[in-house]
Amino acid sequence: MQTILDVQSLKKYYGKEPNQTKALDGVSFQVIQGEFLGIMGASGSGKTTLLNCLASIIRPTAGSIYLKDKELGRLKESELAHYRGNEIGYLFQNFELIDNLTAKENILLPLSLHKVSERESAERLKLLSNYLDITDVLDKFPSQMSGGQRQRVAAARALILDPHIVFADEPTGALDSKNARILMERLAGMNAVEKTTILMVTHNSYAASFCNRILFIQDGKLFHELRRDHPRETQEDFYQRILRVMSMFAGGEPNVF
Predict the structure, then answer these.
(1) Average pLDDT over all residues of the chain
(2) Residues in Cβ contact with 243 at an 8 Å cutoff, skipping those fewer than 6 apart
(3) Would you say residue 78 lies in a domain?
(4) What is the pLDDT of residues 92-137, one digit of tens each?
(5) Would you state the pLDDT for residue 250?
(6) Is residue 252 part of a domain?
(7) What is the pLDDT of residues 72-88, one digit of tens each?
(8) What distance lies between CA 159 and its chain's CA centroid?
(9) H/E/C letters for each residue in the chain?
(10) Is this structure's pTM higher than 0.85?
């Protein structure tokens, strides 16, 4: 199977000795095309720093990140802008929708910036809005939508350019349990049916149970990995295995939706 993302000995340090903070301290892993990978850890473990490095929002202190055959550290600023705008999708915890644009306008904004034809834009919008169940809010502004609807609109915007990989940063963090479950079911469905590659940072064990594989991070280092290798393993079984790992270190949360 093809590797789409290759992270090698990634480090991100803040400050200088003796007060240096090692947000990431030699993280290495690969993401396979079509995988739904979760990154779990307590607050301050380094998971959001990792995601921001992968999305080229911040530059690592050392190490390498490859998206397919491109090493991010060697890209010029114009090439990084293309990477952010075309090759990745980013789903934020707090939606990041533009308040004075409708849901439809928010979703189509990336396509208009990249001069995608109206016909193709309409086809992509119809496909995503049907799948994410947001057709009834396309003409509404963010203030007129529920939190779950806003997050699904944000998911459509992240997916509309058909990126190589979607980075999701605590996507259920601002949602109630019902809307969080709906969003995760939609993302897992797109991963299974459309083979969308997703890398999700979360502290929530239930959200993580939708993933195929989970990497656990603590103090800037990966220390454990779980896979759903057995075809008979249910989501509930996988969830229980996640809880057992989370109980090994501070910050685990036992709550279920």
Answers:
(1) 90
(2) 205, 252, 254
(3) yes
(4) 888 789 999 999 999 999 888 777 888 999 999 999 999 899 999 9
(5) 55
(6) no
(7) 999 998 888 888 888 89
(8) 11
(9) CCEEEEEEEEEEEECCCCCCEEEEEEEEEEEECCCEEEEECCCCCCHHHHHHHHCCCCCCCEEEEEECCEEHHHCCHHHHHHHHHHHEEEECCCCCCCCCCCHHHHHHHHHHHCCCCHHHHHHHHHHHHHHCCCHHHCCCCHHHCCHHHHHHHHHHHHHCCCCCEEEEECCCCCCCHHHHHHHHHHHHHHHHHCCCCEEEEECCHHHHCCCCEEEEEECCEEEEEEECCCCCCCHHHHHHHHHHHHCCCCCCCCCCC
(10) yes
- Asked if residue 170 belongs to a domain, the reply is yes
User: Residue 162: which CATH number?
Assistant: 3.40.50.300
| 254 is a domain residue | no
What is the gyration radius of the CA atoms in the chain, in angstroms? 18
Answer yes or no: are the C-beta atoms of 46 and 219 closer than 8 Å: yes
Distance CA 38, CA 238 (A): 13
Please tell me the total count of domains within the chain.
1
- Distance CA(220)–CA(25), nearest Å, equals 5
Question: Do 138 and 101 touch, CB atoms closer than 8 A?
Answer: no
Range of the domain at 23: 3-246
pLDDT at 256 over 50: no
Entry field: residues in the chain? 257
